[in-house]
């Protein structure tokens, strides 16, 4: 990650890009207010956020797929010069990734990385989660969605619309007092009984990061890095893995593709 941070920093300095948004500090606001303010500041239309990745890229930061070698980590953010890099686990479900990006965004706008001394006075993880919920599901708007009885079927429909997990919706419904603590527990229990607590139904579309791709292209075209060298920098085990994550369009050119039917059609 350190190498990617340096390289992206270097390349970004070269191109001196201009970003439509910046990453403001929201330390003076509570999570609900910060979520609302950032939406205003970034001119995010009301309703569900169509792409967390695009918002972050428009704020001049990078979203980079990264193999953490574990499914316990979804995303990590690091500061690099004038921007941030959000490393995301490409294997995590898309709804969870969006929440994790919003969570990391919470750490950044609260400048948690700047004030490690503050840790202990409050819980930065809780604060980042509260911000993520508020940013993805603004209080007044989401409250209107939680009318009548909240059932598993309703949660599925809401997940499809808001592009957040059913679990995040249950937590939010409780936050905004649309359901009681008891109902929250019942819903989680029902999900466990149905075997959908760990692996939720309703697959939402994956967000596509574009900015890092421009940088990777520059590495190859201007700095003459080979795909193999980039594989090493990015912790990828093989060119195929590298292309699967970064260049799916180049996959058809991989000769070591294991599917023989596919190979014979090359
Ligand atoms: Zn965190």
Describe the structure.
InterPro entries: IrrE_HExxH, Rad_response_metalloprotease. This is IrrE N-terminal-like domain-containing protein. Pfam families: Peptidase_M78 (PF06114). Residues 58-173 form the IrrE N-terminal-like domain. The structure is a single chain. The chain is mostly helical and 266 residues long. The chain has a single domain (2-193), classed as Arc Repressor Mutant, subunit A, CATH 1.10.10.2910. It is 50% helix and 6% strand. The protein is built from 13 helices and 3 strands; from the N terminus they run H-H-H-E-E-E-H-H-H-H-H-H-H-H-H-H. The protein has helices at 2-15, 31-41, 52-58, 94-109, 124-136, 139-145, 152-162, 166-175, 181-193, 211-221, 227-233, 239-246, 260-264, and strands at 62-65, 75-80, 83-88. Strands 1-3-2 form a 3-stranded mixed β-sheet, sandwiched between helices. Helix 2 (31-41) crosses helix 5 (124-136), helix 4 crosses helix 5 (124-136) and helix 8 (166-175) packs antiparallel against helix 9. It is globular, with a radius of gyration of 20 Å. It binds zinc ion (ZN). Zinc ion binds at residues 103, 107, 125, 128. Zinc ion is lined by residues 103, 107, 125, 128.
Strand arrangement across the biggest beta sheet: 1-3-2
What quaternary form is this?
A: single chain
Task: Enter the CATH topology name.
Answer: Arc Repressor Mutant, subunit A
How many domain regions?
1
Structural class: mainly alpha
Number of strands: 3
Overall radius of gyration: 20 Å
Please state the second-level CATH architecture: Orthogonal Bundle
**N to C succession of SSEs:** HHHEEEHHHHHHHHHH
Low-confidence stretches: 254-266
Percent strand: 5-15%
Tell me, what's the shape?
Answer: globular
| Distance linking N and C termini | 35 Å
CATH class call: Mainly Alpha
Helical proportion? 40-55%
Name the bound molecules. Answer: zinc ion
**Largest sheet: number of strands, sense, barrel closure:** 3 strands, mixed
Task: Please work out how many helical segments DSSP would assign.
Answer: 13
Mean pLDDT: 85
């Amino acid at each position: 990650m350190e190498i990617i941070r340096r390289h992206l920093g270097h390349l970004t300095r070269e191109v001196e890009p201009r970003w439509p948004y910046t990453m403001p500090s929201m330390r003076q606001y509570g999570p609900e207010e910060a979520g609302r303010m950032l939406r205003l500041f970034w001119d995010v239309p009301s309703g569900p956020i169509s792409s967390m990745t695009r918002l972050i890229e428009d704020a001049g930061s990078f979203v980079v797929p990264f193999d953490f070698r574990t499914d316990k980590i979804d995303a990590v953010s690091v500061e690099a010069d004038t921007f941030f890099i959000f490393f995301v686990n490409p294997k995590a479900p898309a709804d969870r990734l969006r929440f994790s990006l919003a969570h990391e965004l919470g750490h950044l706008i609260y400048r948690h990385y700047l004030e490690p001394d503050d840790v202990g006075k409050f819980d930065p993880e809780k604060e980042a989660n509260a911000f993520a919920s508020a940013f993805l599901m603004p209080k007044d708007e989401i409250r209107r969605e939680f009318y009548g009885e909240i059932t598993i079927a309703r949660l599925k429909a809401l997940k499809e619309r808001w592009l957040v997990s059913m679990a995040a919706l249950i937590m939010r419904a409780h936050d905004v007092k649309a359901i009681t603590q008891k109902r929250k527990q019942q819903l989680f229990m029902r999900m466990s009984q149905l075997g959908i607590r760990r692996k939720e139904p309703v697959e939402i579309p994956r967000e596509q990061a574009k900015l890092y791709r421009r940088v990777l292209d520059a590495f190859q075209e201007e700095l003459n890095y080979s795909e193999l060298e980039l594989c090493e920098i990015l912790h990828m085990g093989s060119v195929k893995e590298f292309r699967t994550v970064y260049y799916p369009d180049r996959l058809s050119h991989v000769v070591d593709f294991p599917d023989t039917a596919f190979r014979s059609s090359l």
